[in-house]
Amino acid sequence: MVAHLLSLKWRLLLNGFKRSPAQLIGMGIGLLYALGILVLLIGALIALRWADAEIAHTVVVLGGAAALLGWAVVPLLASAADMTLDPSRFTTSAIPPGQLLTGLALAGFIGIPGLATGLTALATVGTWWRSFPAVAGALLGAILGALTCIVLSKVVTTATAGLASSRRFKDVSSLVFFIPLMLMGPIVVGIVDGVRGTADYLPALARTVSWTPLGAAWSLGGDLEAGDVVSAGLKLLIAVATVSGLLLCWHVLLQHALVTPPYAGGSAKKGGKRGLFDVLPGTPAGAVAARALIYWMKDPRYAGSLVVVPLFPVIFFFSGSQSGDYGMLMLLGPLTAFVMAWSICADVSYDNTAFALHLASGVRGVDDRLGRAIACLTISLPLVLLFSIGPFFFTGSWVWAPNLIGLSLGTLFTGLGLSSVISARYNIAVPLPGDSPFKKPPGNVAQTLAVQMIGLGALVLLLLPQLALMGAQLFTGSIVPGWINLGVGPLVGLALFIGGVRLGGKWLDARGPEMFAQLSVNR
CA 402 to CA 123: how far, in whole Å? Predict the structure, then answer.
């Protein structure tokens, strides 16, 4: 049965490559990126072979402890990303728990994360290629450490299976996981600065961590290289006890999960008021706007844009603090306008098969385009105005305020018009409704990049008059181009917005059934 589970996992992995050429190209790019990181990690660990033993011990122990923590946290936050061989799928199978546990544990190494962890762990053998005892200890520690990572992730995901089955938990955890990714630059710089100031503290920290379940397995090679056999023996017991304890916890949790799988159903609710449908006008465009606003508030695929935008000031302020120039804060308005306007370029794709509602009810394309744009404007217009005016209270460069406000509003209206056209013409592969915002169909990287680049180029061309007025103020120093842009930007943007809504509506009327057929494939 263990071999059968491993074969099943392997077949599921190989079937991911039996896709269209575009999807294979996208998967290939992702694999090359992961391979590049893996080669760098393995090369760095092997290079430690010639470093001081204390430095090597510090890097291996702290790095292994960080990997262990990552395996505990990341699968929990991204639990919806890979549900192959989920224990709940075996509730009707009469598989002995011991065989199921062994098979699932070994199957955890089949895949990019597990394989990368295993190979990186084995690279620590190269770090301690200094003596036979050190190599033997490093090899044993690598096996125990990698196995601990896999089993710990299984314990966490099995214990939180009830939460992971909740859509609200998936939505919140995905967005929470996305915030540190956006702030990775400031976080890394802060960590580097902290390490520089506490370089002498890290070896002591590594020695302390090596006596805990986080670092015991990773310290065996260093202790044996130093000739401390007693410490190595005690830490081996700690590492073995950690794996055994985790396996026991997983066994108990697995038995409970197989007998009482999580229930993801919902409770019946009584009918009541119609919310936004009662607030907005009772017209086709108003109904579409109400529906789209509900998506903006409840769908994490839309909420991702709302999470990103407030992080822009943090990133720009951090960048300014490093260089001493906070002028980049003045770009917040145009950047926010672009991001918010471009966020609806895949609106129809986000609908997926629910787009049949628009076709069946006979909604005109222009009403569909207008309703979606109004929903986005309701949220984006206050943000754009806030981020267009707010930075000047900090920088004091008020001479640029009219120009940048006009450019921001022009970008917002022009971008919404362009998005209304693009989303009626191109079907972009996006995460399915209810899935994690990070679970995009594999292989669509080339298509997405092509659409994004074409759209960005078209937007730049449409914004050339306003960009020219920005350049005129920059080279002449006169504020007159800025006041002209304050009037021209919104007016030209509104004209392009109306034109984009009408053109996109005509395309949607002509291509509605065809787009629905394409959307039905991605489900």
Answer: 58
